[in-house]
Design goal:
Helix content is 81%, strand content 0%. By secondary structure, it is mainly alpha-helical. The termini are far apart.
Length: 446
């Protein structure tokens, strides 16, 4: 009975996350329509998503603390309410401030969902299953993006702006009902954890989670491999493929569907890799970052429009970044005690979304500057302007990769000092460090 209940809880969590992802990515489909509806520039349209992600990222740590204190059920239901209100607001918005308010509410509700869903897994399942189920959760939730690309886009183009966003608001209403009726925070008889924690204890928990090098390694891992796919799916992928690459709407929808399918396919493989090779997790993250840079390089260095097969290759690589970023949450889980998982996960989840909002804003800014300078030949979303603007990816990928290497060294030194098996070279370095410290502390014989 407990096992079947656990799978039911997990399924409800996946559905809630699926709804959140569909709300999060819905604006990425309406970039061109939003430009016309709000009479907005490229940077103004990017500001919608930037502010949404800023709210999302800014709430990750507070939400992580609140999830540890109040449980997943309350946070998931509250998040669905906020997202529904945001989409309702956006359905009738006719000005930039009104539209921005709607996306802020969506960002706040979205921020409350993923961490709460992830926290359910170690409470309901055995530790050996956690890495794979975490990957499956993230990838199954990405089906929500498929909903925004296909049914939502279909409603938008056939029925119009307001009916499309009212549909999204109704979907959030369904999630609220399901969560309140069926979701349970932890198995019956399990002692409640985290409730009643005072502000001082909360501050100590947050400080300890941040000081743990494994938490910071998770943050930078998430930062490095998650943002590029988010930028592509949420804002600039659709205009880039339609206006710059000259693809028709059907082909773009197929590529977006490929993005979702490739991410789902890669998730279980990534989960198995993490379970079998825990000391190679950061290496996998760096390999994905390198592949992402290579894929963007192949597209942006191409002299003209890229063939569909090359664009499909880019989409697949960006999709792999989704499950790759989930490795960051595995760092948070393995280097922090159970009562601090929500807080540590919140810290990690900040990374990719901070990188994404910076990239989205800079790309929009560069496009507007090039357009104002006359470089775009009258085409705001032309191929040449996009080629320059999208080069922002290389800067953020470089920063993230350097930070991962620095944090990884600290984590491995810590593991070696604790007697955890590490590669021989790292173990030798740790032993040398301990020897130097011992010599410094030893009393002088003079």
């Amino acid at each position: 009975m407990t096992a079947s209940r656990a799978w039911l809880i997990w399924t409800i969590g996946i559905f809630s996350y699926l709804v959140a992802v569909s709300q999060r990515t819905s604006f990425g489909v309406v970039g061109i329509e939003a430009t016309e509806r709000f009479h907005a520039s490229a940077s103004a349209i990017s500001f919608f998503t930037v502010l949404q992600l800023l709210v999302y990222a800014g709430l990750q740590i507070p939400v992580g603390v609140l999830v540890d204190r109040f449980g997943s059920r309350t946070m998931i239901a509250g998040g669905a309410v906020l997202m529904g209100l945001g989409q309702l607001q956006l359905a009738f918005a006719v000005s930039i401030p009104g539209g921005v308010l709607g996306r802020v509410l969506v960002g706040a509700g979205d921020a409350m969902t993923f961490i709460a869903v992830i926290r359910l897994i170690p409470l309901w399942f055995a530790p050996a299953r956690v890495p794979l189920l975490t990957q499956l959760t993230g990838m199954s939730g990405q089906l929500g993006q498929l909903f925004s690309v296909l049914p939502f886009a279909l409603i938008l183009h056939n029925a119009g702006w307001t009916p499309a966003f009212l549909t999204m608001a109704g979907l959030s209403g369904v999630a609220v009902v399901v969560v309140l009726l069926l979701l349970q925070d932890q198995p019956p008889g399990t002692p409640a954890s985290g409730t009643g924690q005072g502000l001082r204890a909360t501050g100590i928990s947050l400080s300890r989670a941040w000081r743990q090098p494994g938490t910071r390694l998770g943050l930078w891992s998430h930062f490095t491999v998650q943002f590029s796919g988010t930028v592509f799916a949420m804002t600039w992928g659709y205009p880039f493929l339609i206006s710059a690459q000259g693809l028709d709407a059907g082909t773009v929808s197929a590529l977006m569907a490929l993005y979702v399918a490739a991410g789902i396919a890669a998730g279980p493989l990534m989960g198995r890799f993490v379970s079998r090779h825990p000391l190679r997790r950061s290496t996998m993250v760096l390999l994905i970052a390198g592949a992402t840079a290579a894929a963007w390089g192949a597209i942006l260095l191409n002299s003209g429009r890229s063939p569909v097969w090359l664009l499909a290759g880019l989409v697949v690589v960006l999709a792999i970044g989704g499950p790759g970023s989930m490795i960051g949450f595995d760092f948070a889980r393995t280097f922090n005690p159970a009562h601090r998982i929500g807080t540590a996960t919140g810290i990690v989840n900040v990374g990719g979304f901070i990188a994404a909002l910076v990239a989205i804003f800079l790309i929009g800014l560069v496009l507007d500057v090039l357009y104002s300078a006359g470089f775009s030949n009258g085409a705001l979303y032309g191929l040449e302007p996009f080629r320059i603007a999208l080069s922002v990816h290389f800067l953020l990928l470089s920063i993230g990769a350097a930070a991962i290497i620095v944090c990884r060294r600290k984590v491995r030194r810590q593991m070696a000092a604790q007697g955890v098996h590490v590669p021989p070279l790292l173990r030798s370095l740790a032993e040398q460090r301990r020897s130097r410290l011992a010599r410094r502390r030893a009393p002088s014989r003079d």
